[in-house]
Amino acid sequence: MSDSLEQSRSVGKHFIGGEFVAAESGATFEAVNPATEEILMQVARGDEKDIAYAVAAAKSAFDAGDWSRAAPSFRRKVLFKAADLIEARSAEIIRLQTLEMGGPLGPEFPGPHPVMARSAWNLRFFAEEQEQAGGHAFNRDDTLLTYTMSDAAGVFGLITPWNAPIMLSTWKMAPCLAYGNSAVHKPSEMSPLSISILCEIFAEAGMPQGVYNAVLGYGKEAGIPLVEHKEVIGVSFTGSPGTAKDIAGRAATSLKRTSFELGGKSASIIFADADLKKAVGAAAMSIFMNSGQICVAGSRILVQRSIYDDFLEQFEKVAAAWKPGDPMSRTTRLGPLVSKAQYDRVMGYLDLARTEGRVLFGGGRPSNLEKGYFVEPTAIVDVAQDARVCQEEIFGPVATIIPFDDVDQAIEIANDSTYGLAGYIWTESQTTAHYVSHRLQTGMIWINSGFDRDLRQPFGGMKMSGLGREGGGLSREFFTETRFASFPLVPRGAATAH
Ligand code: NAD
User: Fold this and answer.
1) Residue 494 C-alpha to ligand 1 middle, in angstroms?
2) 258 and 271 fall within a common domain
3) Ligand 1 pocket at CB < 6 A
4) Are residues 291 and 224 in the same domain?
5) What value does the mean pLDDT take over residues 70-91?
6) The pTM is what?
7) Model confidence pLDDT, tens digit, residues 215-230
């Protein structure tokens, strides 16, 4: 157990009403380093009492109006300061994240780590959006003037997963807080540490106490009471479809608004005319980065038959550079999976792959690593599209590779999925790219590229990959109450309209 973590006044504690506190019950759970299997520290284990305190703090901050009714320029100033602090403390946040969930530190960067720069951008983007966004005004027949207002709505529950803890959390907090709401955040029990730095940052940036609160703990013990709390008016959730269904059911009983960003089984479609070197590198990055624990991972690779053998040969060579190792080393690209449960799950799929298809490379635990939840980068070939390994989200560094003959067959295979999050198209033909983009049943499509975002775009998925979209004005719709006010244009005593 790390002494410095145990002695920290903030790490592993709830953040309620501006204070770092233990669970009311005194209960804790273990945060485990997935690279070493060592216990990092004991973390506050929240339950309905902690959620009740946090919601009360959030509600009272909302009603006080120091944030909810503050000038947009004030909220912008605080969020910009918080963004600067995220960048300034980038190395510290990334280190804690690597300890808790195993994502590699990556090389030294001259400025902030790119993931922290993106987290800061989330805050700056919505801080500006809320300041600049206007409403609508309508004049009906010169008799009625009516205009819209988008006001802070109340207390929101934000529930996030572990695979990119700070980036995904700021993606939700930024619009929620920027538009003047208060939040109770339930981060994942598998990444409960790094969030403490964000809490410190909000306090230092001058956000009024109680506007943002974090309760640590398990979904069943802290997540469910948050969803069910009567003062929580909406829940923005990122995680698995199974959890989303449970949240949807509970939220429905009190008619809460919900937004769901869920899992995926996204296809990288590589046509014969693609720049093969680029496509191979990007396909590998798409499934091996973060050990495949990315919602938009390109876990199904579809390759036009005429270049299939060539692709397999090059893909295996490129995959060899994704060597699993200590995520704290600056040269490691592939860290461990987040937990023993996730490791066992992925190993189960690798066993299945041997009966449903053929393992081209990888397929097990790296022989040089005795401890930690490491899995080799793996490719599965000679597998039918309806096999479970082609249909279910594995959430590990495991790709299935399937050949196709023509553009329509590629689309048919890509769409044969209960998911619809992302699609990647690799072709030099604009016509093919647009034809496929229009027919792919996914919320997001990248052509000859991947992962790069414009935050004004709608982020989210179709089918089991989500419900609702967040990003730009769509986040504003979710996180505000849009209303109108009208008044007559005909003066008292006037006979009629003009
Ligand atoms: P998960 O659904 O198990 O947990 C997500 C969060 O929900 C955690 O904080 C958890 O404690 C909480 N939770 C669990 N049960 C709950 C309940 N009944 N009520 C309220 N809260 C509950 O997901 P995970 O394993 O942490 O994350 C992996 C999943 O997230 C994958 O499916 C991945 O694709 C998806 N994901 C999606 C996106 C996206 O933007 N589309 C981004 C990242 C991850």
Assistant:
1) 60
2) no
3) 159-163, 168, 186, 188-189, 218-220, 223-224, 227, 238-240, 243, 246-247, 261-264, 295, 393, 395, 421, 461, 466
4) no
5) 98
6) 0.97
7) 999 999 999 999 999 9
